[in-house]
Amino acid sequence: MEKRNLSFGQLFNLSFGFFGVQIAYALQSANISRIFATLGADPHSLSFFWILPPLMGMIVQPLVGKYSDKTWTRMGRRKPYLLVGALIAVAVMILLPNAGNFSFAQAAFLGLNAAMWFGLFSLMFLDTSINIAMQPFKMMVGDMVNEEQKGTAYAIQSALCNAGSVVGYLLPIFFTWIGIANTAPEGVIPDSVKWSFYIGAAILILCSLYTFATVKELNPQEYAEFHGIKADKEEEKKEDPGFIKLLVEAPSAFWTVGLVQFFCWAAFMYMWTYSNGMIAVNCFDWAGVNAADEAFQTAGGWVGVAFCVQAVGSLLWAAFLPKLEHWTGNKGAYAVSLVVGAIGFISVFFVHGNFVLFGKVLPSIWLFVSYLLIGAAWAAMLALPFTIVTNAIKGGNMGYYLGLFNCTICVPQIVAALCGGLLLKYVCSNVQAGMLVVAGVLLLLGAASVFLIKEKKN
């Protein structure tokens, strides 16, 4: 089968549902620390709540990859997983922000009250469903796009990812500005956050249904011809190697890019976990005690804005990235991007104060400059790893490999979450801004690791 080029519209349709999925992911990233702090979590244990999302991703993504590789239905190969994941995510997005509203008994277990346990299980199901819905978009590009267009396809996916992030990050402060309450009684999530999750859920299902309706996946024969592999199901069964053998036979790019990923995703885990507390203390003089305080909840809204600025920075850097790749090569562009992001993380430590504009109190403008620079690292992390890895692996196990590769995103977040409380206490002296400096150092280590990558097209 000729590996013909797809039109821009076809490439766009392949990834449009990713816009909605990313809104859900952005809402989770920007608000989970706020939600659990509001429910009563201590800053030193806050990072532990972040273990569940990557843990579920590490379990779910390889399974979705493995089983969707062998799934051939009238609806498609990857699309059934997309639809199931989106439907579950919508249900959980409605439940999670209401964790503080239900009449739970106040008894605590393992130091967590009942509302926090409900939120924890809701978060587990939310991230599981987001991972089920997210993975098919990456796999469909690997399935249906030729090598020449993969860079363009992932660039479109990256742009939609950043656009979805912008929407998700801005929803809480948008609802605050139009008059929906941004504070609530102690232990209750503010209405501005609840409505953000409700609207995000609606957009998620609409976008997912659009991709489901407009994309026609390759049938087994077409897929086999496109990738130059056997279409016989019995042969497929005999050749199913299992994940241990796949890991042993993985190309070197799989492992070296994975090392870079370790440092990068650990860094961003600390940004997601500690930005709320950092902005509350540095910019709004929060005492660091009661999460129901107006200073903490106000900072919660501005976390979304800061992350939005990071997404905008990512979009701008993504437009510049091809030129940088032309000048320095893929590895040079990757390393430079991570160094710029590291400068952004470290500079956050020195940002303090706020100012008044049109009667509203805003954080220091330098905060947004820092997060704009962080966007450079995010742009490279979204665009380059999957291009390098998908060009290095065979089509027959594309989904399985991509699922396994996503463990290089999940494992560092789990390690970072386990170490977060100790680093905050013993390295950063309980100063949450110090955790952003740790993130910057991790990105510098990632930049140094880039030069271990050996690119190879299979």
Protein described:
With 458 residues, the chain is an all-alpha fold. The chain has one domain: Growth Hormone, Chain: A (Up-down Bundle). 73% of the residues lie in helices and 3% in strands. It is built from 15 helices and 4 strands. It has helices at residues 8-39, 52-69, 79-95, 114-144, 147-177, 191-214, 220-227, 233-238, 242-248, 252-284, 294-348, 365-390, 398-405, 407-427, 432-449, and strands at 108-109, 112-113, 354-357, 360-363. Strands 1-2 form a two-stranded antiparallel ribbon. It has a two-stranded antiparallel sheet with strand order 3-4. A hairpin with a 2-residue loop joins strand 3 and strand 4 (360-363). Helix 3 (79-95) packs antiparallel against helix 4 (114-144), helix 5 (147-177) runs antiparallel to helix 11 (294-348) and helix 5 (147-177) runs antiparallel to helix 12. The model has no long low-confidence stretch (mean pLDDT 87).
Task: Give the SSE map.
Layout: H1 8-39, H2 52-69, H3 79-95, E1 108-109, E2 112-113, H4 114-144, H5 147-177, H6 191-214, H7 220-227, H8 233-238, H9 242-248, H10 252-284, H11 294-348, E3 354-357, E4 360-363, H12 365-390, H13 398-405, H14 407-427, H15 432-449
Antiparallel strand pairs: 1-2, 3-4
